Each structure stands twice: as structure tokens, then as C-alpha cells.
Amino acid sequence: MQSNDPTPSGKDTIGDAKRPSVGILILPFMAADDIVAIAREADRIGYDYCLVADEGLHADAYAVLGAVAVATDNIRIGPMTNGYTRHPGVTATAVATLDDLSGGRALVTMLAGGSMTLAPLGIERKSPHLVVSEAVEAMRMLWSGETVTWRGETCTLDRARLPGSARSIPIWIASRGPKLLTFAGRSADGTLVTVKPDIGAAFAIVDAAAAAANRLPPVRSYLGRVCYTPQMLEGQRRTLPYVLLDSPRRVLDALGLDEDAIALVARALAGNRPELVEPLATEDLLRRYQVAGTPHECAAELRTLVANHRLDTLLIDVMATDLEENLMLLRDSYPILTGRLT
After folding, report:
1. Domain tally for the chain?
2. How does 289-317 read in b/e, with b if 16+ C-beta sit within 10 Å?
């Protein structure tokens, strides 16, 4: 079978189990220089990954990642982006530039593009599976080092060539939808899932697709907010409505929504009105959605998730506007994620 992107080496062990790599996803709601400071501190602490979300009208992911590349030494870096707001050729050359600046530490995570990013730009999310799969194909062709002429349904390359030699940059897919999870199993180097009660069902789709393609499953990553204080759990009310709007029926069922709630989500999605589903974000739903409790309870739940779902990587969101709050989050979360609490 074909092997896929390895996670960073040198990981500790939990008993006989491999300890997962750990990382952060920065949602760039803070100042640009704060993003660089956060990445630098994550590198110092020992995190393995630093992803920056390409959130359209917030701090530009590639501009800050260029600064991050020269400010860090070991951490792997890259954007979490989509195929709508930038041409895949532009994404390919930007990520290749990051790879050069960082000494080969770049990766890219592709996703369908959420309502939080696309709606303010007036972009309709049409055919997300096709958009992402063609973007991945275009990027890999450009990274081959060859001159590429190619016509897809959503993008085109005409005698396009990137400078330099061929390179192998890992591509992860972040998705909740079955088509992109299937594509991830067939083609991606890594898969990133984000809804705790749906982890098993999501990876079952990925694994089936990988087996059908006679390849090893891609790297298995879970991204969440490890809520080790009540205030952190409360803060998830800001993003959960967008998660509900962008989730398929399988995920809504896994979260325990009844038919009335699912109908409300459909109405909110049709009218691009996430505020309609804000009343659904009860504490009970938030706890089903995210890892929550005391630090030791969170660490125990993560150990269970890693063991049950064979997770390779754990990532947390970093999204506060206050720098010191974000730096404290990095320091407090690392021992929870790595099982080094005292």
C-alpha cells in the first residue's frame, strides 16, 4: 500500500501507544504581529504544527505565515484555506514560497470554505467537492516541477510552471461532508475532523475510501477547543452556529439535534442567518461538541479519543484577541494535550 505524510518524529509514548503530535490553528482575529508571537511561542513550547486560517477579511494568512516562517525553527506551518477565494495556482506558489522560507516545513490544509469566510465576500459555495479536488490536483501538478497545461471544470492552467525543482508538500483535507472525506481517503496526506461525536463516523468514511484505493489511511487529526475552564466552554457559543450551518445531517444527528432543531438549521442556512440557531448552543450541546471539564478530565477524555480513534494529531483553536490570553492558552494546553499534567 502507498504510504502517506508522516507526522513529526520523536514523539513520546503513552504506555504502548504512540503519543500524538500536537498543534494549533490560529483563527486570525487578533493583530498580525500577535499571530507571529503566538507561533513563536508554540514553537518554543514544542508544538508540532501551526496552521493559520485563511479567513478572508481578517489578517492575511500568507502574509503572516511568511513572518512566522522566519521567526520559527521547528514547527510545521501552513494555511487552512479553500478553493474559492484564491486560484489554486496562487495557493500553490504561496505554499511553495512558505516551504522555501521555512526550510521545508510547509503543509496546506484544504476545506470547502465555510459561511463565516465566504458569505461576507458574496461567494456562493458551489460544488465544494469538485472545487477542492481540482485545487489539490492543480497544486500537485504545479509542484511536480513540470510545465502544466490543464483544464478542469473550476480552474485552468495554461503553460504554468513554478520556479525551482519538484517538491512534495503534504496536503490535508478538513471536512465534515462525505464527498470530501471520501476524497481525503483516496488522495490526501492527512484528514482533519472537528466535531467530537462524529470522529468515528467521519474516519470510517475516510478509511473505507483509502481501502478501496489500496492505500494507507491518511494522517488522522482532530481539531477542537479543549475547554478546561467554564469560560472557554462559554466562548464556543461564538462559532458553534457556523459549525451547525456548515454540517451535513450525519453531524447534526451525532450532536443530538432533533427534527425541529435540524429544520431550524436548514432555515438559517437558506437565509444566511446564523443568529437563528444561537438558542441551540446550550451548555449540553457545547459539551457534546467539545472536550470540556477540569484539566485532568480533559486530558483523560483526550486519551480516550486518541485510543478509540487511533488519532495521530491533536490540534486546538487559538482565537482570542488578547495576546496574553492566547499565550497562556498555549502553555496551559500543552501538558493537557501531551498527557504531562502533574
Report:
1. 2
2. bbbbbeeeebbbbbbebbeebebbbbbbb
